[in-house]
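Listing S7. Sequence submitted for prediction.
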Amino acid sequence: NHSAHLFQLLENAGLPFELTWLADKSEKYYSVGIDHRSAAAQLVCHLVQLGHREFAVIAGLLDSNDRAFERMQGVTDALTHAQIE
């Protein structure tokens, strides 16, 4: 996760930059990445459609890794939608 201060420094310096690994949903900055939340949700929906009902997740540190956090949110969203605890 990047602080707002970092973006302000880059903008004030007039330095071009691009975010990688995570798509910027605000579309304020150029970015190259994937929507981790949507990808994880699609994966879980596919597994639910195949009949799976028990899930476990091995993930990175959620409080310091925005990608791991978004993937976990996608899993949680899909399981909630499928009414699976």
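Caption to Listing S7: primary sequence and predicted structure tokens for the chain studied. The longest helix spans residues 66-81. Strands lie at 19-22, 31-34.
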